[in-house]
Amino acid sequence: MAGSPLVAPPTDILQSSRPTSSPFKRQTSAVPSSNGNGNGTPRLLLHANNPRSVPDSVPPMTLDPIEQLNEDEKRKYVKGKKLGEGTYANVYLGHARHDPSVLVAIKKIKVQQQYQDGMAPDAVRELKYLRELHHPNIISLLSVFSSKDQNLNLVLEYLPLGDLEMLIRDVDRVRYGAGDIKAWMGMLTRAVWFCHDNFVLHRDIKPNNLLIAADGEVKLADFGLARAFADPGRRMTANVITRWYRPPELLFGARHYSGAVDIWSVGMVFAELIIRAPYLAGNTEVEQIALICKQIGTPTEDNWPGVTQLREYTVPSEVVAVWGKEAYMGRFGAVGADGVDLLVRTIALDPKKRITAREMLEHRWWRTEPKPTPKEDLPRKSGGEQKMGADLKRRPGVVEDENASRGAKVARKLDFGQPK
Ligand code: AMP
């Protein structure tokens, strides 16, 4: 990366709202994903017809053109107070230089000597996938620049209303109902559908990675564990997804898996939104498996052909039959029989039988009463509390070999190729 800082403004910061067309709100990428000259270097945008993108003062022309562009990009933003700190990034509040009312979050990736090119694989993944994914329910990457010390800075849309976890936990002050859950679940499901439709697995879906914009829109964030899954033969690590949201196939050590891993997490978020507590909160992986067996049913060859072949398959000796839909009505009935039907389909033990994101969006629950609450009417976090960056430290696990080596490769090449 030496001497060639990244300059790739993925979107114009001033274009905060984008049109939507299909029922799934699919977006075509506004980000140039190739430079068109075939030499693999990131395309550099000047926004020549956009005077607002021109910095107020032009740095000396001693810089080479790429450095100049980086300098221009950097000068568009003013960094403010620190919002949070984590293992691979510090998050700062920032604003556009030309208009202090345009707020952004600047995620400054720390240089880490133990990694090739000094960039943690999490940071590389986050940058790579956020550049590719443009959707109203996925956090927007507005710009990227490197600072003097070669630190990489991701400029993200600022999402000031906290995250879903804060709302779920604030039982005393935040009240919400079935229409609100339906709205939040709709936004989450559209985000996941969009990732999967673009062959990206998020691999860390949980309430505190669902950030909330000023207008109430929920945005899926933290793509530090994401990866492409276009190649079905490729082995992937099982050590992903925060334990409470981790599906049984990963707990059993599966190295080949699909979007179904994210759907299980979506199901866990759904359950948590309803009961306002994590549904299956194991303290260890063994305990997590035991909870799944007890509350959902024991995975066996009968309900999941091939499960016993997974390399870490172990279950408690007492086999529990898979619970039927009716068993969930008592605890989860607040979302109605259709909602419970959808929930149960997201937590099918066998990943092949689990509902897909697309099928979720086609489920009848969205069309039954109550309607999803309009986003501007959704409950918001109560005043005073600020939780910024605390969760930077909470990682589901260390991503090992396949991702580490892949991450290093991506870092070296700074490969911002075609969207997947
Ligand atoms: P992340 O590493 O993306 O999970 O970010 C860690 C924490 O920083 C989040 O849980 C938020 O509290 C805060 N944060 C990250 N990105 C933003 C953003 N775009 N707007 C506001 N806060 C953010």
TrEMBL record:
The active site is at D204. Residues 13-36 have a biased composition (Polar residues). CDD domains: STKc_CDK7. It catalyses: L-seryl-[protein] + ATP = O-phospho-L-seryl-[protein] + ADP + H(+); L-threonyl-[protein] + ATP = O-phospho-L-threonyl-[protein] + ADP + H(+). Residues 366-398 have a biased composition (Basic and acidic residues). Keywords: ATP-binding, Kinase, Nucleotide-binding, Phosphoprotein, Serine/threonine-protein kinase, Transferase. One of its GO terms (molecular function) is RNA polymerase II CTD heptapeptide repeat kinase activity. GO terms for biological process: positive regulation of transcription by RNA polymerase II. Residues 77-366 form the Protein kinase domain. ATP binds at L83, G84, E85, G86, T87, Y88, A89, N90, V91, K107, K108. InterPro entries: CDK, CDK7, Kinase-like_dom_sf, Prot_kinase_dom, Protein_kinase_ATP_BS, Ser/Thr_kinase_AS. GO terms for cellular component: cytoplasm; transcription factor TFIIK complex. Residues 1-60, 366-420 are annotated as: Disordered. Pfam families: Pkinase (PF00069). Belongs to the protein kinase superfamily. CMGC Ser/Thr protein kinase family. CDC2/CDKX subfamily. This is Protein kinase domain-containing protein.
